[in-house]
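Run log // design_07
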């Protein structure tokens, strides 16, 4: 009887604890709801100068020691007049270079994807750092307040080899290696299933089965890593600069504000992601229909590659007769600068 009573008391205590936790969580959520929907990601009112200075100091300390990070100004880029729009290329798997550049240029407002502001804790950190939503409204609000902005037009799509610079011979070679990889992994899976069936049929102990499975799957993992090392994505260290996003250029042209091209040299090598043709097609579909992140993605890194931010002379919209001409000239200039950097490697 005592055991029953103790069990009942324990159950009631657990229910009470869950109820209190739920109540406290609901109360916190209710109090946070208004703060979560105050559109601070557009206005930037949550910006904390102290937080940004402290975080920027830490980011730059790590970047300069781990990535040998530095900033180089070209032509008259050291004296932007403005507000101006900084457009950083390429993005890569993670925009490490842009984060370092935002820490270096403490007066510039970083514009990031709105999904970051959907996660409560991450939202607050981004807002304290001074980030805003990379939307037309978010950009124009900051420009109205005479603040320069920085964004990354290419996004994660630049890491997809399907959109990149793979040559036909490279593609055929990669497809052959891919077929061999799938055949070998199929042998690994078949061997794993066969040993399991044999172990059950012969009533073998679980220890021999476990050891055998470990050896089989370690062998499969070694094959996969060998393929990754051999066919690392963008072995030449070159991405295809994407030209899908032109909204920031339209804003700049209509407001007659200069756009400053920014290129990150070494960004591509920090996170080495390998690519399969079929996997790239799946990534592209996922980005187009579900989310901005190129899932599925397997990557290696971060590696201590030398990272340099190159800031070029701004393009002035006053020098162009039409919006289309301004957009075409901007991307032509960026691609030419990027080609020169890639040839210097």
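design_07 sequence
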């Amino acid at each position: 009887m005592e055991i029953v009573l103790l069990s009942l008391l324990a159950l009631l205590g657990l229910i009470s604890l869950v109820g209190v936790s739920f109540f406290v969580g609901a109360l916190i959520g209710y109090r946070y709801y208004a703060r979560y929907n105050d559109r601070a990601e557009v206005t930037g009112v949550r910006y904390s100068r102290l937080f940004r200075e402290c975080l920027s100091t830490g980011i730059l300390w790590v970047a300069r020691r781990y990535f040998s990070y530095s900033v180089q100004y070209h032509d008259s880029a050291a004296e932007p007049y403005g507000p101006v729009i900084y457009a950083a290329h390429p993005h890569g798997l993670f925009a490490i270079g842009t984060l370092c550049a935002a820490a270096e240029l403490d007066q510039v407002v970083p514009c990031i994807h709105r999904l970051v502001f959907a996660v409560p804790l991450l939202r607050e950190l981004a807002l304290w750092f001074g980030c805003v939503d990379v939307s037309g409204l978010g950009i124009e609000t900051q420009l109205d307040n005479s603040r320069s902005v920085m964004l990354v037009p290419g996004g994660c799509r630049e890491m997809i080899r399907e959109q990149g610079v793979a040559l036909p011979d490279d593609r055929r070679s990669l497809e052959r290696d891919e077929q061999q990889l799938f055949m070998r992994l199929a042998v690994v899976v078949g061997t794993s299933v066969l040993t399991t069936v044999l172990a059950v049929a012969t009533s073998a102990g679980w220890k021999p089965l476990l050891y055998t499975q470990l050896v089989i799957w370690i062998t499969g993992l070694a094959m996969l890593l060998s393929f990754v090392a051999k066919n690392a994505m963008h072995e030449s260290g070159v991405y295809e600069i994407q030209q899908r996003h032109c909204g920031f250029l339209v804003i700049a042209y209509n407001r007659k504000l200069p756009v400053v091209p920014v290129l990150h040299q070494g960004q591509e090598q920090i996170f080495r992601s390998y690519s399969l043709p079929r996997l790239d097609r799946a990534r592209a579909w996922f980005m187009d229909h579900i989310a901005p992140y190129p899932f599925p993605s397997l990557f290696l890194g971060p590696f201590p590659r030398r990272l340099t931010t190159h800031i070029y002379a701004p393009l002035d919209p006053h020098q162009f007769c039409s919006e289309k001409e301004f957009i075409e000239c901007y991307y032509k200039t960026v691609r030419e600068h990027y080609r020169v950097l890639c040839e210097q490697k």
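Residues 170-219 form one domain.
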